[in-house]
Amino acid sequence: MVYFVATPIGNLGDISERALETLRAADAVFCEDTRHTLKLLNHFSIKKPLIACHKFNETAAAEKLCALAAEGKQIAVVSDAGTPVISDPGNLLIRALRERGIAYTLIPGACAFVAALVLSGFPADKFAFLGFLRGKTGEKKKFLEKYASFDGTLLFYSAPQDVDGDVRLMAETFGDREACAVREITKIHESIEYFRLAEGLAGEKRGEYVLAVKGAEERENPLNALSETEHIGYYVSRGMSVKEALKAAAKDRGVSKSELYKFTLKDKKE
């Protein structure tokens, strides 16, 4: 069995008993940074063989993991902090396990973006976690543009050396929205700072950040200002059949097709 084990993101007291039991019972621990994980295990007096698994060797690590699991070994997989796979190595491991029919599960626990979403107080019923912005400036902006109209809370990870540039790009792409920067989660210097994207995030940048950005405000579809007949006619004039136009207009207006049926243009071909 392979266990993906969530570890603390700051405060070591946040580790669960189940996570500790799993680490103690493991025959080997696959980890992002052996030095970092060694400190965690030493703190809890756990001694296990550590095998590096990071973005530069994940394919080879996956083969080794599957071989050990096939021998009946119990394996634990951890990242440096938080839940494995979330913006960390591990996804390739899971794909390899699935392909070979090897059993695996998650020992849940800390996750930085979930903690930041709660702490921000922004709407949490609809959100998107987008991880780190990667690539050159143009690539980042193109990526952000895909979410410019998303009306839920947007969550990003950002390193201290990148946060100012990331915020500037968000302001350029999303406009001036309310945002929240959460850093050093569960640590002594945990902070929650609210700011406007257009103004930027003030102060010296230290520690890893989670940026929460409010979603786009709902905008009234301008087609809804037309009469029902004109609305249907708009879609028909662009090549839709009356049936298709009726469906599209009903969706725009948030009503059933039957409510608009009487406005169907009889002189248009279905």
Layout of secondary structure:
Elements: E1 2-5, H1 17-25, E2 28-31, H2 34-43, E3 50-52, H3 58-70, E4 75-78, H4 91-100, E5 104-107, H5 112-120, E6 127-132, H6 137-145, E7 153-158, H7 163-174, E8 178-183, E9 191-196, E10 209-213, H8 228-236, H9 242-253, H10 257-260
Parallel strand pairs: 1-4, 1-5, 2-3, 2-4, 6-7
Antiparallel strand pairs: 7-10, 8-9, 8-10
Helix pairs in contact: 3-4, 6-7, 8-9
Domain Tetrapyrrole methylase: 1-197
Organism: Candidatus Borkfalkia excrementavium
EC number: 2.1.1.198
Question: TL;DR of this structure?
Answer:
The chain has 270 residues and is α/β, with parallel strands linked by helices. The protein is built from 10 helices and 10 strands. The strands form 2 sheets. It has a 5-stranded parallel β-sheet with strand order 3-2-4-1-5, sandwiched between helices. A 5-stranded mixed β-sheet has the order 6-7-10-8-9, covered by helices on one side.
Provide tags for this entry:
5-stranded mixed β-sheet; 10 helices; 18% strand; S-adenosyl-L-methionine; 270 residues; Ribosomal RNA small subunit methyltransferase I
